[in-house]
Structure formats: structure tokens, C-alpha cells
């Protein structure tokens, strides 16, 4: 947990420890990044308004080498900030004050997703959509034969759409199947779809594979 407010950090650390988690708290992004490199955690919680390196840059720095689930916990509730944090690489965003039960529910969902991704087996065939190849067994995505770096969440989202080729899945369906949330912010889906398009589409203005069906949701087509 990277949080510069001592009172908030201590209260959340104690509350999460009461729920059975082992938590390491730091007050700055620099300390948190050093700790993550030295002894990687399986989830990172990060505030945005940090001294020195801010939360956005902290997320981007983690994402350069690590696909660990990242949850933003911030008092900033402006849509621009939420979208910017997700585009930087965060998997989820919670606005302070945070209810500990909601936070732990999100953490459990993140861990279930991580285990499910790690448990993919070689019996799952490569999914091909023209020049786009998705290899669930190896956690790989390729476009025109070239590997594409995607986060764990982006990969699960892409696999979910690929397993239903040509079928429209609503944002709520994707929240439930990819994030494990029965209730959640649909902007999570929109931002991750946008990030995926930047990585797998030659022309994001006219996507060939990852298509929006207005008023309904998204589909992956060949």
C-alpha cells in the first residue's frame, strides 16, 4: 500500500490485517517501487496524490515490468482522473472514504482472476482473428506474428471476447466475467477496451476486430 497520509495508511493496513491480509505500507512512490522490486506483492494499492513521484507515474513505472494487479484508492473522483489512472495501467479505482468490505471484495475478485489466468492449460487452442492471435495457454497475444504486451486484465478481457466470436457482450457482462464484479463502474470496461485497441488494431479510429456495438457493448470479430 502506497499512501502518504499516515492516519489513512495505518487504518487501512490494520483493517486489511484484520481480514487476514499481510500488508506492507509505504508513504511515497519511491519507497513503494523499491519495496515491490525487492519483494513483489501480489496486489498493489496506490494513492494518486503522493509527494515526489505521483500515483500516475508510479503506476506507469510498475507497468513497465510487472503485471501485478493495481488498485487506486484516492479522494479524487473526477472522471478525468479515473480514466487517466486506468489508462496508466491500474486495474481498478476506489474513491475515498473506502468501505473495507468493498475493498476486500475487490481484492478477492482480483486474486480469483489472477489464479484463473495462471490456471489456463495448453488444451485451450490458439484463437485467431485475422492477423490477431491469442494464445490462452501461454498468455500471449500477437499481431502479424509480433508479440504484444498486455496486462493481466487486458488479456482476460480479450480472451473472454475471443471465446464468443461475433457475439456482443454488454459492459455489465464483461464486468462480471472479467472483473468478477456484480456491481462496478462500467468505465473500467471502456478504458481497457480502448487500451486494447491501441495495441491490437492497426487503425483505432476504424477498428477491424474489437468493435463497439452502440448501446449494447463490444464484440470481437474476425
List the helices and strands and how they pair.
Blueprint: H1 6-18, H2 29-38, E1 44-46, H3 55-63, E2 70-74, H4 79-88, E3 92-95, H5 100-118, E4 127-129, E5 132-135, E6 140-143, E7 146-147, H6 152-162, H7 171-179, H8 187-200, E8 210-213, E9 217-220
Parallel strand pairs: 1-2, 2-3
Antiparallel strand pairs: 4-5, 5-6, 6-7, 8-9
Question: What does this protein structure show overall?
Answer:
With 222 residues, the protein is α/β, with parallel strands linked by helices. The protein has 2 domains: 6-118, 3-Layer(aba) Sandwich (Rossmann fold); 127-220, Arc Repressor Mutant, subunit A (Orthogonal Bundle), CATH 1.10.10. Helix content is 43%, strand content 15%. It contains 8 helices and 9 strands. The protein has helices spanning 6-18, 29-38, 55-63, 79-88, 100-118, 152-162, 171-179, 187-200; strands spanning 44-46, 70-74, 92-95, 127-129, 132-135, 140-143, 146-147, 210-213, 217-220. Strands 4-5-6-7 form a 4-stranded antiparallel sheet, covered by helices on one side. α6 packs across α7 and α6 crosses α8 (187-200). The longest helix has 19 residues, at 100-118. It is globular, with a radius of gyration of 18 Å. The protein starts with 5 loop residues before the first helix and ends with a strand.
